[in-house]
Amino acid sequence: MPQNKLEHAIIVGGSLGGLMMGLALSRSGYTVTILERADSSLRNGAFIRLQTKPYSNSKIEQELRQLASNGNNNVEAWSAIQERLRNAVAKESGITLQHNTRIVSVGQNESSAWATSEEGQTFKGDFLIGADGYRSIVRRYLNPDRPFADYTGYLVWVGKVDEELLPKKDWKKRQLSSAYFNNSAAGTLTTAVMPGIEGGTNPGQRWIGFCWFDNSHNQLLSELGVLKGGIAQHSLYGEAIPDSLLEELSQTSQANWNKEDDAILQIAIKDRSLIGAPVNEYIPNILSKGRIAMIGDAAHTMSPMTGAGFNDSLNDTVAIMDSITQYPHSITKALGEYQTLRLDVVRQDKKSL
């Protein structure tokens, strides 16, 4: 528990890592402000493979794993996890989740840390956690000499479709919570079966998620402004995906993937429900400084092919809470301990991939 019930944490980034960090801090007695640049709509995404091995098996870790897995599922839709975490956050009186807030700088002094929005509003707290993804503003403060993640040379097309839209004869060909991998001249395709709307698990009620790794469109990404100077700027969504590219993806899918996989992709292409996300990687040499720390993709970005991003964010959250328990009266010592616990581990994990 914090030494002062009014001790206040600022979290930059309200995606999965930021939501988990907010819940952990709130349930330990802190007041929390989460600042998210996007609006409140749920992200489509694809699927997340959840690790079952606990980090420290603390109470908060058990609670977060329960929320993520919805009990016992080891493959879950990104949006389903996001919705459950959002609902849990909404029930916490100590958390303020503020959307449409783009942070442009962070800073600290001996007694506080703060984040400043592009509108000039300053949010001040006793400490600050950056959970703001691969283009992290917090990372630029902590490591100005290496502020950007490295673009790996390919992007991943992700999404999910309702199994009910697929031919009924294919419904039982895939098992719940299982992932399937295929390779071709078009790249690597991973599909997975997960609970559908309202948690439906019977054939025909489920979601089929996909990740298609594609290294053939780097020039186009530069032309579209997704890449600038070799640095990824944003993902491709919906209407921002050119018709010509969708037609090319449709033809490529039909020529390279089996009929069952092609049927999934054709639905997503037709509906423009897929997302083209540049794949980035970042190996950190720092995780914290004074009253500011970073977690998840802000701290250590990796390819989604590893399936470890969400799980590492959860482990970062647990490590911070364990460190606060060890140093309840000094947030700077606690965040320093977090770096000691996690830095060498995540560096080694990234180098071994």
From TrEMBL:
SUPFAM superfamilies, sorted: FAD-linked reductases, C-terminal domain, FAD/NAD(P)-binding domain
Assigned keywords, A-Z: Monooxygenase, Oxidoreductase
Domain 2,6-dihydroxypyridine 3-monooxygenase substrate binding intervals: 151-218
Domain FAD-binding: 278-326
Single Gene Ontology MF annotation: FAD binding
Top-rank taxon, per record: Bacteria
Keyword Oxidoreductase: yes
Pfam families for the chain: FAD_binding-like, FAD_binding_3
Name of the protein in question: FAD-binding domain-containing protein
